[in-house]
Amino acid sequence: MNLLNISSPHATRPGNTGTVMLTVLAALIPGIAVLSYFFGPGHLIQICLASATALLCEAAILYVRKKPILFYLTDYSALLTAVLLAISLPPYAPYWVTIVATLFAIIIAKHLYGGLGQNPFNPAMIGFALVLVSFPVEMTTSWSAPSALLNSSISIQDALRYIFLSRETIDAITMATPLDLYKHQVEIATATEIYQDPIFHGPNSDASIALGWQWVNFAFLLGGAFLLWKKIFTWHVPVSLLISLSLLSLFIGWDSDSYVPLSLHLFAGATMLGAFFIATDPVTASTTPLGKLIYGAGIGILIYVIRTWGAYPDAVAFAVLLMNFCAPLIDQYSQPRTYGHKKAVRGLAKKD
Amino acid sequence: MNMHHYTLHDFKGGIHPEQNKSQSTGQDISTAGIPKILILPISQHIGAPAVPLVKVGDVVLKGQVIAQGEDFVSCNLHAPTSGVISAISEAPVPNQSGMQDTCIQITTDGNDSWPPIKGLDNYLDAEPQALIEAISQAGISGMGGAGFPTHVKASIPASKIDTLIINAAECEPYITSDDALMRENAADIIKGIEILQAILKPQQCYIGIEDNKPEAIKALQDALKENKDDTHGIHVVVIPTKYPSGGEKQLIQILTGLEVPVAGLPADIGIVCQNIGTVRAIFQAVALGRPLISRITTITGDTVAHPQNFEVLLGTPVQYLLEQAGCDQNKIQRLIMGGPMMGFTITDNQIPVTKTSNCIIAATHNELADPAMEQACIRCGMCTQACPAQLLPQQLLWFAKSSNLDQAQAHNISDCIECGACSYVCPSNIPLVQYYRFAKGEIKQAKADKQSSEQAKLRFDTRNARLEREEAEKAEKRKARAEAAAKKQAAKKDAPPTEDATAAASDPAAELKGLKQKVLASQTRVDKARERLSMAQEQNLDTAGALQLGLDKQIEKLAIAQKNLEQANS
Ligand code: SF4
Ligand code: SF4
Q: Which residues of chain A have pLDDT under 50?
C-alpha cells in the first residue's frame, strides 16, 4: 500500500483555468453570431486570423521561455485574448492591423509582464489601443454598414479581398458607426433630424435603437448573463459600469438635441461587450467586492467622458486601460472587513 | 408545539461541495468489536499530556484510569476494555505532520469486564462543581475536532454565559457520525444538554443542524417533545447546508449574528459551543458514571464495501476498522482521518482512533483525484467569494509566495481558519491553504527568532551589567581594604594597639560598607540567575520553572539586603 501524503483540502472542484476561459468563449458565441449576421463574415475572418497569430506567437514565446507549451496553450487565455481583440476590431480592417494588434497584445502586454496572471493591463485592449492610435484611418474606415443597408450582402470572397488584398472598393460597404454618426451630427442637427438616418431605424423601420447594433448588444448581454449565472464573475463590475454610464448620460446628456442619448450609449457601441467581457477580465480588474464596484463605476464614467468630449468615437478600450492602472490601488483601499475585526484594513502595511 | 422563528444570519462565503454522506447512513450504528490491541496516545486533547498511572504488565479493567490529567487543562485517559498493558512507548499518532507520541498499548482479553460504575443521583439538582468534576473524571474532551478539555469549557463562570450552542452542523462531506448519533441517541443528547444547562445556566440554547439531516432533526424534536417539561428552552435550529457552517465561528455567526472578536473566545461574547458527541459523553459520564472510552466514527470511501458508522473503542487501529467495513485495502490511494476539507492523510494504518476521530475515508484515485498541476492565479476572485473569514486569498497567496510576511500579516493571514474553501474553488488548482500554512509557520518562526534574539540581547545586557557591578564590587573591596589598612596604620601611630579589632567592628561606617557589599553581591547573584533563566527559556528547557523559583528567591534576598542597607543609612 502506497498512501498519498498531502495536506487538506483533499476535495477540489473539477475543472481548471482552461474551463473558465472556454466558458467565456462559449458565452461570446451569440454575440459573434449576431455580429456576423448583420455585418458579414469580416469578424469571423478576423477571429481566425487573430487566433492563429496568438496561438503561434504564444507557443513560440513559451518555447523561448522553456515552458511546457501544451499545458499553457490549453489554458486558452491566448485564444480568448485573440477573440476579444478580433471582435473589437472593425470587421474589415486590413490583416496587418489585426496581426500587429495581436502580436502586441501577446508579446508586450502579456508575456513581457510575466505571462498569464501577471499582466496589469488587459492585453486585448492594449493591442486595440495601439492600432487605434497608430492606424487611425484603417481603424475608422473599416466598419461595414449593416447588410440590410447594402445592395447585396458581403460575400466571403469580398471580405477576404478587403482584408487581405485590396481596399479599393471598400468605401462601398463601410459607413460610420451610429455612435460616431450621432456624435458628429448633433453639433449641427436636432435629434429628430439625426434619427432620419436609416442606420437608426433600419430600411423598414425594423430597428428601435440602432440597426444591427442593438441586437449585437443584446447578444453580448445574454452571454454576460450566462456567465453571471455560471458564477464566472460577479455582478459588481458590469452592473456598476452600466449604472454609472447611465446616470451620467441621464444627468448630463438628457437633452438628445445636444448629446448622444442613453439608448445609444448602452446599445449602439461596444458597451455590453465591454461591460461583460472586457471590464470583467479578472487578471486586470479589481478583486475585492467594494473594489469591483469602484472599478466598474470608474470605467462607466470614463466611457462617458471619452465618448462625449474625447476624440474617439468609442471609448471602452481607453476607459478599461485607465482603470487597470488604478486597480491595484483600489484593491488596497477596499479590503473587506475580516471576520472578528472591527474595521477593515486600508492600504498596505507600513514598513518599519 | 409552538414553532419558533429564528432570524438566521448567513455567513459570508462558503461552498457546496459534493456531500457524499448517503453512502454511510444506510445502516444503524454497529459496534466495531474489540481488537487484539488498543493503542492509546496520552495526548488526545489540547493541553498537557496525561501522565501514565500504569506500567507494562499491569492488568487493567474496562473504564480504569490508565493515565491522569495532572494539569487543569488536560484529560484523564481510561482503559476502553479489560486487558494487560503490553507497552508504553512511542508510536504514530493521528496528526497532521505524521508525528509519533507516547502511547499506552493494551493487549485486550476479550472479557470486556467493567468494575461497577454509578452515575450521580438526581444529577440535575447537583452542584455545578460536582457535575464538572464528573465530566473531568470521565476524561471528556471536545469530540468535534479540536479536542479541548470539556471540563475547562464548563468551568467558565455561568455569569459570563448567556447562550449555549450545540454544534450539530456536521458540514464536512462524507462524515455522518454526529448524524447517526442524533438519529439513534437523541434522548441522551437532550439530557446531556440539560446537564450543561445546569452548569452554565445559559438563557438560551440552540442546537444548530444543517438541513441535510432531516431524520436527525426529527429525532431531536421528538426527544424534546417527550421530555416532560420543555421549560429549558432548547431549540433545534435548522440551518442551510453550506460548508463550513459547522466551523465554530461560522455557526455562532449563523445563529446569533455575532462574531467572535479577533484573538478572542466565544465566551467573550457570552457563548459556549459544544459538539453533539461531547454532549452525549457528558450524559454518559454524569448520569451513568461511564468514562469516555468509545466514540462514533464513520468509515467510508469507495474502497469500503460497507460504509457505515461504528461505535469504536478508543485506541482501535484504523486497519481493524477498515477490515470490519470490508475495505479492499490494496485499492486505497488516500487514507484520510477527518473530512476531505480539513482532515489529514495518514500513511500508517496502525494509527489509532482517538477522542477526536470522527471519520476515516479510504479513498480511491477516482474519488479524490491527485492534485492537478498548479496554474497561474488569474485573480478571478472565486476564492474571495468562498472565504468565510472574508480574507483576500489571492492577495495572501501573492504575499505567501513572495515571503512577504509583513503584508501577509497585515492582510490578516492569522484569521484564516484553513477551511480549504478557497483551494476548493480555485480554477487554477492552486493549493492555497498549503501556502498559508507555510507562511503561518514562517511567521511563527520569525516571531520566535525575534523573541530569542531579544532574549539574547537581554542576557547580554544583564551580563554586562553584572560584570560592571562585579568590577565595582572589587574596587569597593580594594578601597575598603586600603582604607582599613590606612586606618590601622593611623591607629597604630595615634593610639594604643589594644582597641583596633573591636573598634572596626563597631564602626558604623564599616558596617555600612559591609551591607553595601552584601547588596552588590546579592545583585550579582540575581543577575546570574536571570541570565540562566533566560537561557533556559530561550532553549525551551524544562528547568525554566525551577530557575524562575531560584530567581524569585534571589530577588527576595536582594530586597532584604537593600532594606537593611537603607535602615543602616538612615
Ligand atoms: S481562485 Fe485561484 S485563480 Fe482565482 S483569484 Fe483565487 S487563487 Fe487566483
Ligand atoms: S482556508 Fe483560509 S483563506 Fe481559504 S477560504 Fe478558508 S479561511 Fe479563507
A: 351-352
Sheet holding B100-108, edge to edge: B37-41, B100-108, B83-92, B59-60
Spatial distance between the Cα atoms of A220 and A215, rounded to a whole number of angstroms: 9
Per the CB < 8 A criterion, the answer to whether A132 and A139 are in contact is yes
User: What is the least distance, in Å, from the CA of B13 to any CA of chain A?
Assistant: 11
Cα A274 to Cα A287: distance, rounded to the nearest angstrom: 17
Asked if A234 and A181 touch (Cβ cutoff 8 Å), the reply is: no
Dist CA B172 CA A318 (whole Å): 46
Domain boundaries, chain A: 15-175, 176-335
Q: Looking at the CA of B397, which ligand is closest?
A: 1
Task: Give residues with Cβ within 8 angstroms of A285, minimum separation 6.
Answer: A237, A279, A292, A295, A324, A327, B379
Report pLDDT digits (tens) over A200-221: 877 777 777 788 889 999 999 9
Q: Which of residues 20-39 of A touch B (CB under 8 A)?
A: 20
User: What are the residue boundaries of the structural domains of chain B, listed by start?
Assistant: 3-362, 508-570
Q: What is the ipTM of this complex?
A: 0.87
Write the residue with the smallest CA distance to atom 1 of ligand 1: B426
Q: Give CA separation, B504 vs A1, B98, B187, B354, B443, in Å.
A: 88, 72, 88, 74, 63
Ligand with an atom nearest the CA of residue B342: 2
Q: How far away, in angstroms, is A288 Cα from ligand 1 center? A: 12
Q: Is A349 on the interface with B (CB under 8 A)?
A: yes
Name the closest-CA residue to atom 6, ligand 2: B419
Hey, how many other C-beta atoms are within 10 angstroms of the C-beta on B179? Answer: 26
Q: How far apart are the C-alpha atoms of A191 and B472, rounded to whole Å?
A: 100
Domain B3-362 in CATH 3.30.70.100? The answer is no
Q: Is B83 helix (H, G, I), strand (E, B) or coil?
A: strand
| B378·A282 Cβ contact <8 A | yes
pTM of the predicted protein model: 0.82
**β-bridge partners, B141:** B149
Q: For residues B414 and A345, give the distance between their C-alpha atoms in angstroms, rounded to a whole number.
A: 14
Residue ranges lining ligand 2, Cβ < 6 Å: B 386-389, 391, 393, 416-422, 432-433
Contact (CB, 8 A) for B556 and B494: no
Contact list, A348 vs chain B (CB under 8 Å): 407, 410
| Contact flag B376-A232 (C-beta cutoff 8 Å) | no
B383 Cα to the center of ligand 1, angstroms: 6
Q: Is the CB of residue B378 less than 8 Å from the CB of residue A17?
A: yes
| Interval B496-508: pLDDT, tens | 555 444 544 557 7
Give, in order, the Cα–Cα distances in Å from B112 to each of B38, B259, B471, B487.
13, 46, 72, 89
Query: Which pLDDT band, with edges at 50, 70 and 90, does B512 fall under?
Result: confident
